[in-house]
Specification:
Helix content: 55-70%
Strand order of the largest sheet: 1-4
Distance between the termini: 51 Å
Radius of gyration: 22 Å
Oligomer: single chain
Shape: globular
CATH architecture of the largest domain: Orthogonal Bundle
Mean pLDDT: 78
CATH superfamily of the largest domain: Winged helix-like DNA-binding domain superfamily/Winged helix DNA-binding domain
CATH class of the largest domain: Mainly Alpha
Largest sheet: 2 strands, antiparallel
């Protein structure tokens, strides 16, 4: 065991031990990172009980991955937090598919409802994606989407023609969408999976260069895990997180 000041190496040793079948090593990782995980979960969950459930499920999923020979080799906490975000997202999406009702008539239109936990998580993904955009793209998006300025109004200030501003805004929106989708991708362990994972959003949006597209096609043909990641963000891209319909009365889940 290394000293407390050498925690990164200590975590690495513990991760290797868990892969070798040492369950006690995972207990050490749990004790070391439980408080930070609980704090992170409180920012994602609606209440204390949900946060506790989120922490437990996340640690269980990471443990299962490690025992199967997958999961992180280093940076355990970063991997844990990424997994927790995905667990939270998947749980919220599953909740959205449930329709609570004591009346199964097809004619009850219901009322629009946005899940607060999912909304908070999606806002964090969108904010992180926005921060990664080039400054000029952030500026044109803010001016057009938030301030409501038209390309003609922005053109003199940006030193462009109105048409060029419109094109820039379109590219910025597409860039934001790709980066937003990329926030949902769980990092792979194998180098080729990491390469593919970094490009899954452009793959979904049809933005990969031909050479990368060929490499991606080859990799997906032999990697079931990356095909699963691709299917997940394709669903996210298609779903677009519109509000779901909730009935007036709670009953059995349909």
């Amino acid at each position: 065991m290394t000293t407390p000041g050498n925690d990164v190496h200590s975590d690495t040793d513990l991760l290797a031990a868990v892969r070798a079948g040492d369950t006690a090593a995972y207990g050490t990782l749990y004790e070391r990172h439980r408080a930070a995980a609980r704090l992170f979960a409180c920012g994602l969950a609606r209440d204390s009980a949900d946060a506790d459930d989120l922490v437990a499920e996340t640690f269980a999923k990471v443990f299962a991955s490690l025992r199967a020979g997958r999961g992180p080799l280093v940076a355990f906490r970063a991997y844990l937090h990424t997994t927790m975000r995905h667990v939270c997202y998947q749980r919220a999406r599953s909740d959205r598919r449930l329709e609570f009702t004591d009346d199964l008539t097809r004619y009850d239109a219901g009322e629009p409802f946005t899940d607060p936990a999912l909304d908070q998580l999606e806002r964090s993904f969108a904010a992180a994606a926005f921060r990664q955009l080039p400054p000029r793209w952030r500026d044109v998006l803010w001016q057009t989407e938030v301030e409501g300025s038209t390309p003609a109004e922005l053109a003199p200030r940006m030193g462009l023609t109105p048409n060029a501003v419109a094109v820039l805004a379109h590219r910025a929106r597409e860039g934001l969408r790709s980066l937003y989708l990329q926030q949902h991708v769980t990092a792979g362990e194998h180098p080729e999976c990491r390469w593919a994972g970094d490009r899954l959003a452009p793959q979904v949006r049809g933005r990969l260069a031909p050479r990368d597209a060929h490499r991606m096609h080859t990799h997906l043909g032999r990697c079931a895990e990356c095909r699963g990641r691709l299917a997940e963000i394709r669903e996210i891209d298609a779903f677009r997180h519109g509000p779901y319909r909730q009935r007036h009365h709670a009953g059995t889940a349909g």
